[in-house]
Amino acid sequence: MTAAAQIEATFREEHGRVLAALISQLGDFTLAEDALQDALVNALERWEIDGVPRNPGAWLTTAARRRAIDRLRRASTQARYAVLPDAFAADKAEETEMESIPDDRLKLMFTCCHPSLALEAQVALTLHTLGGLSTPEIARAFLVPVATMAQRLARARAKIRGAGIPYRVPPADLLPERLDALLAVIYLIFNEGYCATGGDTLTRGDLCGEAIRLCRVLVALLPESAEARGLLALMLLHDSRRTARLDAAGELVLLDDQDRARWDRAKIDEGIAILDEALRLGAPGPYQVQAAISALHAEAATPEATDWPQIAALYGALAGMMPSPVVQVNRAVAVAMAQSPSAGLALLHRINGMDDYYPYHVARADLLGRTNQREAAADAYQRALSLCQNAAERAHLQRRLDEMLKL
Amino acid sequence: MKYMLLIYANPSAAPQYSPEVQQAWNAVGEEMNAAGVRLSSAGLTPVSEATTVRVRNGKALVADGPFAETHEHLAGYFLLNCNDLDEAISWAGKIPAALYGSIEVRPLNAAAQ
Fold first, then answer.
1. Cβ contacts (< 8 Å) between A170 and chain B: which residues?
2. What is the pLDDT of residue A6?
């Protein structure tokens, strides 16, 4: 690794923890961020000459605290009568051991994912503060202009201070709903990277790794949360298939057609191990169930070896936890595989409100085709084609439609 | 921190006046007092009794009705002193009108803090 790459990796690694500690000490989100930026510029100059210090986190924290004091002094000179906080007036800025700095990243996560911030601001702020991603990097990943992203971040920071969003781990009565929101943000970051079929796929793929990294931190800081582990397992299991789900031309490859030798075995093994830990905590939830479904796919050596009865049962459990028509469609498909296409069709036809959801029509078309109702299947493929925007999937649907229309 | 909790509601969505309704409003007011957070509060008369004033080119223009033609009207407010936004949000959720209208939580500006 070159010196520059090592420095950048260190910045990314330490950013969240150092910033979280600084916000606690300074009581000011913006001051902490500005001071850390100053310290990073400092570090870049010094480390290129002296090398990365033994404890880079402590180095950055100390340097950032000094920069914060400089900033406060400058501000107080300007304000003339303002008083420096005691802690800083007395600060000798001695080298602090990182081990002695409490890990406040959990507070930072909950602050960044506060429901009074717009979801897109929560996502951007989380990536920026905890992931250490720069504004241009986040803008690129979400396909928006840098100026737009900078404004989004600035507004969010202003609201944290102006609206009095607390910097803390929510109390017990708020924790479950706030944790759900936090997990949703991490999963959204993952899916932005995973589902990216347009744009710069490489950059967007990094979002998957970033979401996994954030969730690892969350699991370490909140070890009693079964759903945090469930989400980590789910993302690792999905991510094990990330490269196999696109072909050389960048087109989507369906699960059945993927080269299972290209699945990342290490990620699958880790995902399953973490899922086992989650399940042992005895608090089932939708992420754990989805991870279990993903694990069953991952454990099947061939598509035919898939344990469909168990997947169908898990979708049944999931439907009870999150009553979403999308889950119902997946459940019907699993039942079709486990029992018979007509059993799946019967379930599909009981779902309402799916007329504009193309995967519903794809599932219907497939099951109609397999029960020899070719005309109805062709109609369903037509309907799916009229709704689907994704070029790779459209090509696939058109091929299936042509097959149905052949005598 | 001082927060203004603005109550917006569609009058036709509000429940008919009854002792139970009054009791629900009294209860939240008493709870706020017990917690020592309430600085002031008031309900407003219907927008049919509202008058809007604008001064344009030095001339006062007076008109009948509210400033904006919307379904949800400002119906009242609570001014609270809370530790943080979470506390203000939790009080907002206890206001009876939250069940059929919406409560806008607005921090007072720095000069008013």
1. 86
2. 82
Of B64, B66, B62, which is closest to residue B11 (Cα–Cα)?
B66
Q: Say which residues have a Cβ less than 8 Å from residue B64's Cβ, sequence separation at least 6.
A: B50, B51, B52
Query: What pLDDT does A73 receive?
Result: 86
ipTM of this predicted structure: 0.88
- Across residues A67-76, what is the average pLDDT? 86
pLDDT range class, residue A200, cuts 50, 70, 90:
low
Q: Can you tell me the distance from the alpha carbon of A214 to that of A340, in angstroms, rounded to the nearest whole number? A: 41
Are A188 and A119 spatial neighbours (Cβ–Cβ below 8 Å)? yes
Contact status of B89 with chain A (Cβ, < 8 Å):
yes
pTM, two decimals, is: 0.87
CA atoms within 13 A on the CB side of A120: 13
- Given a cut of 90, whether residue A288 has pLDDT beyond it is yes
Rounded-to-integer distance, Cα A129 and Cα B43, Å: 42
Yes or no, beta carbons of A162 and B84 under 8 Å apart: no
- Test mutation, A116, A117, A169, A178, chain B, max B CBs within 10 A: A116
